[in-house]
Specification:
The protein is built from 8 helices and 6 strands; from the N terminus they run ααβααβααβαββαβ. The chain has 2 domains: 36 residues, no CATH class; 186 residues, Rossmann fold (3-Layer(aba) Sandwich), CATH 3.40.50. The strands form 2 sheets. Strands 1-6-5-2 form a 4-stranded parallel β-sheet. Strands 3-4 form a two-stranded antiparallel ribbon. The longest helix is centred in the middle third of the chain and has 14 residues. The protein is an alpha/beta fold.
């Protein structure tokens, strides 16, 4: 047996597969926690950013998302869905990655995207964590890659606890694009969670500057931040985008 396979078998014996939501054995997501997931699609969601919204057209959370053609997510960022993302990202529970990638693939196929990029980590954070969860999901979902890659040139630190305006300010100029001009291609950005949208908006901005025709975003979860002046900025966009 290959040494890597032996190591994986040893890890499985020492750390058996457990549900990310409740800890049940022998599954990364049990049926009970599966049933508790709230889809981020359908009625009661913003047509542009998929956050909770029962009003017409866009919700105020995405009034200033001018860089994006739209954003989609699989689940609301709560309960078991939040645990899925956090266990993959912070506890390095990689057994969740194939499960999430399998669910991201059909959602990505429904978007008019020519190629995909992952939201990058700063090299220092990636060394500490050991992997980039967005890159891992992108690879396992077998999404068509864009001809460019994104790079984070500044360590912006954790965005947890910051307002939308603070997040946007800290991320301004934090990303660069490497690769040939995008020549009017539609590009998708993949991440694990969308909160204020500051990260994907800044990524979209540099991709548009590099020649992209439009940019879409897709994530495992969408955090429907409370509607306050701290996370809603600017006037509403002129119209609802066409749903692909």
């Amino acid at each position: 047996m290959h040494p890597a396979a032996i190591l994986r078998r040893a890890v499985d014996l020492i750390f058996p597969l457990r549900c990310a939501g409740c800890g049940a054995f022998d599954t990364p997501l049990c049926a009970h926690c599966e049933a508790s997931l709230t889809p981020a699609v359908g009625p009661g969601r913003c047509a542009n950013c998929t956050a909770r919204w029962s009003g017409p057209e866009f919700c105020p959370r995405c009034y200033n998302w001018n860089e994006l053609a739209g954003a989609r997510a699989l689940y609301e960022h709560e309960g078991a869905a939040r645990a899925l993302v956090h266990r993959l990202k912070y506890q390095r529970y990689r057994a969740l990655a194939p499960l999430l990638a399998q669910r991201l693939a059909p959602a990505a196929a429904n978007l008019p995207v020519d190629g995909w990029v992952a939201v990058p980590l700063h090299p220092s954070r990636q060394r500490h964590r050991g992997f980039n969860q967005a890159e891992l999901l992108l690879r396992l979902a077998a999404l068509p890659p864009a001809p460019v890659t994104l790079h984070r040139t500044r360590n912006t630190g954790s965005q947890i606890g910051r307002t939308a305006a603070q997040r946007a300010a800290s991320l301004a100029g934090a990303f660069t694009v490497q690769g040939p001009p995008l020549e009017n291609l539609s590009i998708g950005i993949l991440d694990d969670v969308i909160t204020s949208g500051a990260t994907i908006r800044e990524c979209a901005r540099v991709l548009l500057h590099h020649g992209a025709r439009e940019v879409w975003a897709l994530a495992v979860t969408r955090a429907s931040l409370e509607l306050t002046s701290q996370n809603t900025v600017g006037p509403p966009p002129p119209s609802t985008p066409t749903t692909p």
